[in-house]
Queue: 2 jobs
Job 1
Amino acid sequence: MTTVRGKFISLEGGEGAGKSTLLAGLRECIEGHGIELVLTREPGGTGIGEAVRSIVLDPLHHGLAAETELLLMFASRSQLVREVIEPALRAGRWVLCDRYVDASYAYQGGGRGQPVERIAELERWACDGVQPELTLLLDLPVAVGRARAAGRGDADRIEVEADAFFERVRASYRERAAAEPGRFRVIDASQTPAAVLLAATRALTPLFGEAPR
Ligand code: Z5A
């Protein structure tokens, strides 16, 4: 019997957009359809990736060059694709990833000004054609997201950036969503958590039609 390849879904958004909050509800929804799900995150998701995460987010590493930051994001991603995402999809499991390659276009491209062609080249190399079927973009005014995240305490190396940085990140995400309407669903993340979950589960509905029950 041939195994039906699993579905790959990514969650994106600015700081405090509610990705972690949404993950739990989405997990329940997907597993409720009898689907085996792998939850993961970027940067991180593997032993090597989590080590990279601690390097890129450590506020002590304020000297990290933008080019190095970009390469580290893709180093973590390359490992995650090979160790976790591709094997899971091949085994018929679904993968729900808290951030994926769009985050590099938004943060390192939009935020830091790294050239898009450079990011696209790294994507070809690191992702090996593995792309989400669906990307949920939780869109929120920067000030609202930052106010939510402020309640959490210690800011990481990226969270200490100025509002202008996060405005560029948001603009970049929205541009990518507009350019790929077939893959992206933009969700108004200023709604209540329940309304955000409802919008997200609606966006998932077409994928369930093809899943084994
Ligand atoms: N990064 C990068 O630069 N390049 C890359 O390629 C990748 C990542 C992959 C780590 O990401 C950093 O790495 C991130 C981008 C960069 N840096 N920044 N900034 P992360 O995803 O681990 O961390 P994050 O973006 O800082 O996530 P977050 O701030 O934890 O956001 P969230 O998970 O989307 O939010 P949350 O924890 O679910 O919610 C935040 C608070 O808001 C919390 O108190 C909730 O209870 C509350 N909340 C959530 N939803 C709502 C609603 N709907 N209403 C009201 N309150 C809410």
Job 2
Amino acid sequence: MTTPLSEVPKVRLPHLAAAKAAGEKLTMLTAYDRPTAEIFDLAGIDLLLVGDSMGNAVLGMDNTLPVTLDQMVSATAAVAVGARRAMIVADLPFGTYETGPKQAFRSAARLIKAGANAVKFEGGARVAPQIQHLSQHGIPVMAHLGFTPQSINTLGGNRIQAKDDASAEVLLRDALSVQQAGAFAVVLELMPAQVAARVTAALEIPTIGIGAGAETDGQVLVWTDMAGLDDQAPTFVQRFGDLRAALLQATQAYAAAVRQGTYPDPEHSF
Ligand code: KIV
């Protein structure tokens, strides 16, 4: 029997702080719909990220830039139906927060009303006013530093960040400023492991790494990469399954059964 929703203890901000203090690793995966949210929640994933990676992972876009707030709202609502225990963090897409705290609040409020428990957006000191405003008005914010996919055009592609001492210093200062502004956690993407380890040691809030080595307080992956749904994934990704092969096999079996007339059989007919 499934435990009623009201009895499942939800992952909340104090749980994340306690995990960092106890040295327990946090698990995070992207989710863009109800069925995957339900499975990842059942598997005990702590945080579900309704990431704007939805654009390239499932909507067939080249990058995250075309993703709209309406698309994020509808994915967030679907994930909220599937998630019982996991904290839901939803991305503010490109163009919905950069101009200031008011714009960021208006956009974030739509995601919270759709069922998100927190929002994430990219940037360091330059978005500190947005982080502070949202945190002070009831919306927890996860920050995102290192490779920030919405800046792909200025960063010149998917490049490892903070490779030299000067840029590692800037990253550390950005991390301290998002913490100071009130962020409850920060994603560290695509950077040398020792830089992420240094930032993790310097911060009181948890760091969640992606392509940033093993010494962050948690890890996040795009779920289609993690489960092997696509035939290509970034080099830092370990494929923990081969969903592409499993789905292909199921689909071929279905098509063959229909063509042979063995589906539907009497057991599956009224
Ligand atoms: O949108 C996303 O999936 C993300 C992760 C890469 C952290 O922001």
